[in-house]
TrEMBL record:
The chain crosses the membrane at residues 41-58, 64-91. This is Uncharacterized protein. The keyword Membrane applies. The lineage of its organism: Bacteria, Bacillati, Actinomycetota, Actinomycetes, Streptosporangiales. Residues 1-20 are annotated as: Disordered. Residues 1-12 have a biased composition (Basic and acidic residues). It comes from the Bacteria. Keywords: Membrane, Transmembrane, Transmembrane helix.
Amino acid sequence: MSRRDPRGDHHDRYGRHGRFGGRPPSRAGLLVRLWRWRTEVILLATASLLTVTVVLSLKEGDWWPFLVLVCAVGVPAASGFGRSWVIAHVWCLVSRHRIQRTCAETGMHTRSGRLPLILWITPSAAGEKALVLARAGTCAEDFDAFSAEIASACYARDAVVSRHRRWGNLLTVEIIRGDEVPGPPVGLDRLYGRADWVSLRAEREPDVRLTTVPLPELSELLEPDELPFPGRGQQAA
């Protein structure tokens, strides 16, 4: 059975690189590592720069940079919108690294050890949505087969995989944490919409529709002398 069949057994799904000559993920290059940790690097550099600026200003007796920094941090933290914005983007960072870890642990990488590249991840109406570039040797069906593992790794309820209608190497992984919040589109949905993306789960689920079939009357199935109440068949006719 194919590894991409979600109903396959545990050995088939996880034995892709253990049985057929593959190898574990290789160490990524410097540019790829910087891209994966770009948000953390930018935050660390910004925090270091602000800290140095405030310390130097306080030594010179200038309190304005310190007051500006306190207001810039305290005002968003005091509002519900600010706290929600921060929490949503922290979950984006967590999900990005957990998806990459899932790719490494489940064998969703090329035989040369290259992991799919997470181009972008943003908050969504129900959690987070990641835009992923599948490298040669991987595809959206691989992510769909391991959607349960992705959801578990991201501490979420579910994970839904969609692929682009035209570009097969582009896919989205939406991490579902709760019910969808009504409102205008946010994140990747606002920029790319949903018309060009096809959910693999919707393709896999059969279209089951209930059809009402009229049943024949008893008088149409039995002869007049076989009716439980003789004469009613002739009256009805």
